[in-house]
Write the structure tokens for this entry.
Amino acid sequence: MAHLGYFREEYVRRRGWLDDRAYGELVALCQLLPGPASSELGIAIGLMRAGMPGALLAWAGFTLPSAIALVAFALATSALGPSDLRWLRGLQIVAVAIVAQAVWSMGRTLAPDRPRLAIALGAACVALVAPGAPGQVATIVAGGALGALLLRRDQEEPSRLDVAIPVGRWVGAGALAAVGVLLVGLPLLRRLVESPALDAFDAFFRSGALVFGGGHVVLPLLRAAVVEPGWVTEQQFLTGYGAAQAVPGPLFTFAAYLGAVLHGPPGGVPGAALALVAIFLPAFLLVVGALPFWSLLHAVPAAQAALRGVNAAVVGLLLAALYDPVLTGAIHSPSDFALALAAFALLTVARAPAWAVVAVTAAAGAALAAVGR
């Protein structure tokens, strides 16, 4: 969820590629799709900005830093446990400030009146009581239903997203069909062709396609895919998971580490590349497939009202995430809370760039850890 705050700071506030309304609708779409929501959002922004090459480059830019770090870690050694990185504390704390800023700014834009504020607060309550993907999907659907009932405007003119969707509906339908074909066809092909690479591709593709909620939700699927068949040991799996917590980027890049340490072929860098492509391919196809049809909703006034409710619900989901896991996972002492407030002030009052706030907070977190505060 912290990635949503970083994305908004970069692409809405600083670059102006999207407005808050379009950004909120993209967030809602990616929350409804299976797979890693933050990666899907990056792919969607790249697609809307520069077509298919933009989508590919956006995915690569967001994914490769953590993937390269994890592959380097895997190749260096598989015997070390998770590193005790003091700067990780500062990165966790600055995420509180980034998400808080996103909640505040998006709330003012997407929940400016009492009905939408009520939807946002209700969505936050539901998300906290029923965490996980089912609660998120139910919250977004309920927000849309309430919006359709409560947020209709008299003599409303149909509108569309302020940015074009450079993908036709036939291409979108083909991408959605490709997901279904691969889900059904890969297991059948594995029975006909003996190939360790094909086995690994199917396992990682299935893990990426069948998980709702992204992030940590994929871990049980990945463990079943690589540990139970004996491709990766339990110790290697846990070590890689610990390393994945110490690098920026989407947790799905954990697959790159697993592909690099696979017993037998492909393994190494080829295995990492195969695993990385396979686990993210469903997300890429789903975004390309869903965006052309998502834009059709903007021609229907009732759908516009529903989207206003969905946007308010997205603010509520982000508010819930600000509390759990961002706040509860990062703030453990008064000094942590003070550092989070300072980072929030740097972002909102001093209007410091996000990268500078991250650097300052990481250094301060390391200093606090060093003195035992």
Summary: The CA atoms of residues 189 and 198 lie 8 Å apart. The longest helix spans residues 37-76. The chain has 15 helices and no strands. Residues 80-85 have pLDDT under 50 and may be disordered.
